[in-house]
Task: structure prediction
Amino acid sequence: MKIIKSIAFWTVILALGILVEMLGRFEYINPYVIQVLELIGINIILVSSLNIINGFLGEFAIGHAGFMATGAYLSAICTVKFHMPFALGFLAAGLLSGLIAYLIGVPAFKTFGDYLAVITLGFNMIIVNLLNNLEYVGAARGMVGLPKSTNFIWVFCATILTLIIFRNIIFSNYGRIWTAIRENTLAAEMMGINVVRSKMVAFAIAGCFAGLAGALWGHMLQYINPSSFTYLKSTDMLTMLYLGGVGSLTGSVLGAVLMTGLLEILRDLGVWRMVIGPVILVLIMLTKPLGLFGSRELKIVQPKSDREEVQKYVSHAGRKHNNEL
Amino acid sequence: MSYFIQQLLNALQLGSIYALIALGYTMVYGVLGLINFAHGDIFMAGAFFGFFTAYLLKLPLIPTLILSMLLASALGIMIERIAYRPLRKAPRMSLIITALGISLFLENFTRATLGGQPRSFPKLLEIQDFTFLGASVTNLQVVIILVSIFLMLVLRYIVQNTMIGKAMRAVSDNKEVLALMGISLDTVIMVTFGLGSALAATAGILVGLAYPVIDPYMGITVGWKAFIAAVLGGIGLINGALVGGFILGFIEIFAAALLPSTYRDGIAFTILIIVLLLKPTGLLGRPVIKKV
Result:
């Protein structure tokens, strides 16, 4: 009975995605709306992967756009320079970004506290600087002529798969290690957890998915240039993350949907649109420092056994940082 | 030889600007333990304050400088009052993100109100060239270096010899005991923000004079470089900011002589990461012992 229920559920979800894709193809839905929906999907992937580091692991990374950039550029090199199919470029983007994130993790976790934030940001800046100087990828002019490979169904499936994978990792034993590290690093170490390695794995996973999102993003706009991946982009992701809720997958989805939607609605405001994001970010921090959802989850996301048990013990993501002060 | 002296003066000029901004980062970090991401934008705001006082009120250099310093101090204190003070007991992450938000707000707000195009800074100083040991020097370079050194000495006097300076050093040493000594933490933090912002505004005007264009996003790169300088010397240490600022200035000028100048930012950040790996507390910092 349970299996039938879940099969039915996923069939409905998939059918919904195919329906929207079809409606888009036959132009019952405006291509602009489709693009906004794709953007929302990509942002969900970005924000939930950032949430792994900032929310579940309790570290503080502010250079996520760097991983997005490596993904976007590698996939673009694959499709434009080597004429590979997009799927291959997509996978390569994820792998490379994951690998780079892992390598960044090696030095990053030797330092402590705010310095990790600085290193991630420094990495972001270095990547942008390199891309600005590499003639092979068009330097500051960027790359043009990317095939229009990203369609709604790609983004839809990628988003759903990302969320399923993240949900399953987070509520698995391995994911609990991250929460344990967040709550009390020392106690986690006492329990025999290899803290540095767990952190690096989390970093690699987050970087990998950011790379995938970057590949999708590049092939959606068909044009990438280094200035799209500066720390402003990273801050956009932080805004969505902290709007929705740190330490909550539901929150990531909500934050990405709300913020992307809001910015599209406010498109008429022109430059003032860019003032609104930061104001929202500051207001959230002043009133609800853990975001709208905090670390709560919707029932559908949380495994049944988890609902009462864990909530008793797990406080919010901020506690560790309080203790350290 | 004259080429070397020329570059040396350029490096001193750049370094003193970095050092002025780095002082603000380091003082706030020492007192609050916060990386004040908005500091680079206070530098930008200071340049714009200078632009408007010089342009609208037609004031000469020194009054422009003083007025902009006052305005920037007010801005810094206001930011602290509105955005940072309510979060003093909140998780540290919230504070850093608020600082990022304020930084973006200042940039985008300035752009929305004043437009994004670069504006040329009014010439407050009749530029004269003269030769010194074979190198051609402008009086502007001398003014920049002298003003910076003068302000650094003033700051040093305040921190070392006045009551409020003593209180500032006490805050960075131990916050809890401070209250027992009857010192108001709020006042100390306010003064810190005021002083830091005034120095940043001076740097803004000096940059406006030296590279005569200013724009709403000028604070990003320079602000980050100054932050790197502060970390390089040891964040939280006033001498560290000076050492870091001048070292970074020298490295950048002499690296630009060897590599294409577009690599400048990349080099600065690479240095930052290397320093953090080898000596996380900076060149002058003592290692932190983490107590369990």
Notes: DSSP finds 14 helices and two strands in chain A. Chain A has one domain: 2-324. Chain A touches chain B through 46 residues (CB under 8 Å). The radius of gyration of chain A is 19 Å.
